[in-house]
Amino acid sequence: MPFNLRTSFSAYLIVLFSAICFVKVWGFRSVAIAQTSMSLLQVRCASSRISPSDGSMSVRSSQRNKASSKRRKSVSDETIISKRTAFLKSWLLHNENEFHSFSKDEADAIRESLLVWYRSNRRKLPWRGDEPPWGGSTIAFAAKASAVSSNKKQASLKEFFATSVVNLSATKRDEDVDAPDDHKKSFPVTAYGVWVSEIMLQQTRVEAVVPYWVRWMIRFPTVHDLALADEDAVNAHWAGLGFYRRARLLHSAAKYIVNDCNGALPENVQELLHLPGVGRYTASAIASIAFNVNVPVVDGNVCRVLARLRGIANNIKAPALKDNHGWDLAAQIVSAGDGSAPGEVNQAIMELGATYCAPGGTGLDENDPLKDFYFSTRIGREVLRAFDGNDLKQISELRYASSNAQQCSLCAHGGVAEVFDILEVELSKALESKASVSRENIASKCGHSSFPLSPPKLAKREEVLAVGALKWLGPNTMEPAWLLHRRPEKGLLAGQWEFPSVCVWTSETVKPKGKRKNSSDRVPIVSACVRRKALESLLRDVASTDKKFLDCWASAMSLKQCPVGEGPIEHIFSHVRHTMWIESVDLSQALSLSIMDGVQLACAGREMRWMTESQMKEVGVTSGVRKILKSLEQKNPKKRKNMVD
């Protein structure tokens, strides 16, 4: 088609006009849409108080405000948690001994509470001048502790808190000790009597000491009487009380007092320490109780009370507590107030440690004079607060820091973390139970029982003994005689009479292989042949020292040796366990009266003697000898009528 300029121009005008119309229509709509959007934005901005001109910035500002709010809330929560755990933190991270010290007001209040309680509730004891019957038993407290430690389910908690309150001044009659028939009155309070009681009370329960002390004071009423007594008489009145070295030292000290101190017991700690068998504890006890000297007394019971009062994470046998800083803490209580009655204060602390603050104590008993002062019960409640407040993360961090931090010298290394772990586990178990006891009381009790730490258990030494029981009963005698010999003057059961015996095996010569549930599991059964050869060797040595005994020896070896019972007898000491195989030989038919009469032998410098049971009572024999005699009686009950008590 030929190009037409007019036609082309007309077409151009049509297109241009159409374009202008399109722009006008859609432009108007775009403006309307924009205006509508702006109006909506103004309404939204007005509701949120944001300038419409800052639309993009307002979003960022809102995000910043939310983050700031979260930070403020986090800081606030951390502050609340820090306040809630401040007490625990101070204990977990302490590193100075001063942390455990008493304030003056606290020491004054504790001393006053102890004196009021002690004067109203103390046990009636003969060395305190009380009239019979005498108390001293802590059976009720031991039973209470046993109920808690037994592996019962929740019943143990219920039983513990449901146990009736024990009144020390009103113990049951069958737990009391009456005076002998020839002594129905009280004993005078004397320094000598206090001294004897303190020696007897070393590692021995009060209720066991009372009858021995009474018999001792009747037989040896003054230090002069004791100094003049012979060794056998002293041993006879100590027999059965254990730790016989104490009797020998008491006897030696009496001679020292009579010969070097004009018969008067020294009145201060420094001079008392010169007495045989008297250490810091005994000297301080005698000085404060008998002579009113203001000095503290620290034993295991006192250490337990101090550990619970001041949150000391250690065991009661730790030297830092028992021999060092514990004395400083006890002195703060004894010297508080006007410093009077130090003997009563010391006895009050010791008595509390044996009763309401015994290992099974709760710290909550209404008759416990220090129930408002225990650090241990508060620790339990603070850990409960941490549980309830879900503060476990921060507490866990503090516990970890504690295990790696340097702590005070009173607490064991890592002891604070160990106590906390024990408390956390015990509290978790207790809270899972359904006991009808308040959560706070449960927490207090768990905290209290977590102090002090348990001392390390040392395995007892094991010894297997071959024991020879040689008996002779003459035609005109009513009771048989037994061959006994004295133990060495030093060591276990020093100077005591016993049946001849030989150690045929000891654990000291054996290297342990692996762990065993019971130390007695590794004690071997020594053959009868080995045991009898060892006894033959011992008796041969005896025979070589006395011609009269040669006939005894020959007769003994010609007779059949009879093992007593189906197995050995066990006798346990504090640090050693004896497994005794008894070989019995009856020489009655082989020996004449002339041969036996007056025979006294010596073996390795140790006296040997034939004794009847009546004579054994006069010289005193150990519980181990009595146990062997009982075994022999069971073997021949018809021939045995008289038994050593």
UniProtKB/TrEMBL annotation:
Tagged with keyword Transferase: no
Annotated ranges, domain HhH-GPD: 200-355
Renumbered residue ranges of the record's region Disordered: 49-75
Pfam family, one: HhH-GPD
Co-factor binding comment: Binds 1 [4Fe-4S] cluster.
Bias kind Polar residues: ranges: 49-66
One GO cellular component term: nucleus
This protein's name: Adenine DNA glycosylase
